[in-house]
Design goal:
The complex is a heterodimer. Chain A is α/β, with parallel strands linked by helices. Chain A contains 11 helices and 8 strands. Chain B has 2 domains: about 210 residues, 2-Layer Sandwich (Bifunctional carbon monoxide dehydrogenase/acetyl-coa synthase(codh/acs), Chain M, domain 3), CATH 3.30.1650.10; about 35 residues. Chain B starts with a helix and ends in a 5-residue tail after the last helix. The chains are: A alpha/beta, B alpha/beta. Chains A and B meet through helix 3, helix 4, helix 5 and helix 6 of A and strand 7, helix 6 and helix 7 of B.
Chain lengths: ~270, ~260
């Protein structure tokens, strides 16, 4: 199904995935991608890999040639160089470089944020890149951001407002601790504006009631439980894209329900 | 002053050389006036007519992708008699002949006007980035490189190089009134054919750059003046931030202009 063949969604959706490292955020994002594409309701789909580890491209079977981190380096280099002419062209160069960093397949597009090498804050550079990403995002109907544990980097580098933030946790106290921390960052510190916050338990082997109670204690709605699925581990091991999981894979079935209930069903 | 006139000859030699090599060279003559140029065009032309990215899945033909090569530059002459006003020269396949293709792309814009001078060059340079002014046509450009996409919708309406050429001529003639005549060369034949074109472009650019630098020096302009005084000394990277802030400002303005009134 090509992007243009998909049914247009009712409105633009901006969803980010966060949570403690190692809880399966990237595999979850990849399964969410597959579920969205299967549903034909995503419209034009943009995935943003905001985790510097860049795990999402291989999980969805694409290769990254250029990252936004490299674009950032190029901007800083140009602004530092003495050439006025290059600086004057920076505004035009930026859109060229962002398009160069955009990986497009027939069914979705991916932007990899990557690592930033140059030390220093350079807030205006982040402003510039965020503006370019927001401008690019206007061409898409559904945007999914695979983030790292902290949401502040999504705010700093990608967008300042989300419709839904999905926190992925495994069935451990540390996973829930990070989820609680993220909730505080949203509600108390207002690190990023977010309309809906929800928790997804990943690699669950029973104990759903106990997990639901624990989530209630930290004040986050549970969006769903993704069962432990041997196939996901095997796909990861041999480097096969998670998006190629069999349609009936228990993990994918659970993620599909989450997507239908909380992403496209909003 | 005939700063770039020698490059008219070089360009003619380049086209002649490709013709000798058996490349198909097509010449399309368009009318001169802006109204006549815009008459009957299959797509809208003007600010805000194409503000979004054309995604690959919506693309009929892509030209100048960094993987296949591109070369783009412009120059001007103050002798309109030296160019054929309204002439589009196309070497290689036209847009309707290339569904789904990723073509190499060469684009040379030549402007003429008795009133044109070096001070207009910068304006001409900026005018060539008509990213949002031709419906169904997206441009991303950086120094001497051009990357563009024609949407499937525009192609269905009949978008071809004549459409692009006429649109560019109309945009330049209306935005820079000093432009009396204009000629365009498009090359889509092969990456190898772009090589000599790129050499000519590099020479033109070198002259333009040297004129620009001389002009800045004459005006006493120093990009790093801030780093030598005041509070800026506390942060060695302040100039970087200052430059970027300006770009941010311009882009924000550009975005708000292209967005127009919101319907959400």
């Amino acid at each position: 199904m090509s992007m243009s063949e998909s049914l247009p969604p009712k409105k633009k959706r901006l969803v980010a995935v966060s949570g403690k490292g190692g809880t399966g955020k990237t595999a979850f994002t990849a399964m969410m991608t597959r579920a969205l594409l299967d549903s034909s309701m995503a419209g034009r789909l943009l995935l943003i890999d905001a985790d510097p580890a860049l795990g999402l491209p291989s999980a969805i079977g694409v290769q990254v040639k250029r990252t936004m981190g490299q674009v950032r380096e190029e901007i800083i280099r140009t602004a530092r160089s003495g050439s006025q002419e290059e600086k004057a062209q920076l505004g035009e160069m930026l859109d060229y470089m962002v398009l160069e960093a955009l990986i497009e397949t027939d069914s979705f597009a991916l932007l990899a944020m990557g690592r930033t090498e140059t030390q220093g804050c350079f807030c205006p550079v982040n402003d510039l890149l965020r503006g370019a990403i927001e401008m690019l995002s206007r061409s898409f109907d559904t945007i999914i951001i695979d983030g790292e544990a902290g949401v502040e980097q999504i705010n700093r580098q990608v967008v300042r407002h989300l419709d839904t933030l999905i926190v992925v946790s495994d069935a451990t106290a540390r996973g829930l601790q990070t989820a609680s921390l993220i909730r505080r960052m949203i509600s108390d510190d207002r690190v990023i504006r977010c309309d809906k916050l929800g928790l997804v338990f990943n690699r669950v082997q029973g104990n759903e009631e106990l997990l639901r109670r624990s989530a209630g204690e930290i004040g986050i709605e549970v969006l769903g439980f993704v069962p432990h699925d041997e196939a996901i581990g095997q796909f990861d091991l041999i480097g096969r894209p998670i998006t190629e999981l069999p349609a009936g894979s228990p993990g994918l079935v659970a993620v599909r329900a989450i997507v239908e209930g909380h992403v496209i069903g909003q | 002053m005939a700063i770039y006139d020698a490059y008219l000859t070089k360009l003619a030699e380049y086209v002649g050389g490709l013709r000798q090599k058996g490349r198909r060279v097509r010449e399309i003559d368009c009318p001169s006036g802006v109204d006549k140029l815009l008459e009957g065009l299959p797509v809208k032309v003007g600010p805000g007519t194409n503000s979004d990215v054309i995604l690959r899945s919506d693309t009929f033909v892509e030209m100048g992708n960094p993987d296949v090569g591109s070369s783009a530059f412009l120059f001007w002459t103050d002798s309109p008699a030296l160019i054929a006003d309204g002439r589009i020269t196309l070497i290689g396949p036209d847009i309707p002949e290339s569904p789904g293709a990723s073509l190499p792309f060469g684009q040379v814009l030549i402007m003429a006007g008795a009133g044109l001078s070096e001070k207009d060059h910068q304006k001409l340079e900026h005018t060539q980035f008509v990213a949002d002014q031709i419906e169904g046509y997206m441009i991303r450009s950086t120094s001497q490189l051009i990357w563009s996409r024609v949407s499937k919708e525009a192609a269905e309406k009949g978008f071809c190089f004549e459409t692009l050429g006429r649109s560019l001529m109309a945009i330049f003639k209306s935005e820079v009134p000093e432009v009396e005549a204009m000629e365009i060369l498009f090359v889509t034949s092969s990456r190898e054919d772009l090589g000599p074109l790129d050499d000519i472009g590099a020479q033109v650019k070198k002259i333009y750059k040297s004129i620009l630098v001389a002009d800045w020096k004459a005006r006493g302009f120093d990009a790093y003046v801030c780093s030598y005084g005041g509070d800026c000394k506390t942060c060695p990277d302040q100039p970087v931030c200052d430059e970027i802030k300006e770009v941010v400002k311009v882009r924000k303005q550009m975005i708000s202009e292209s967005e127009g009134p919101s319907d959400s």
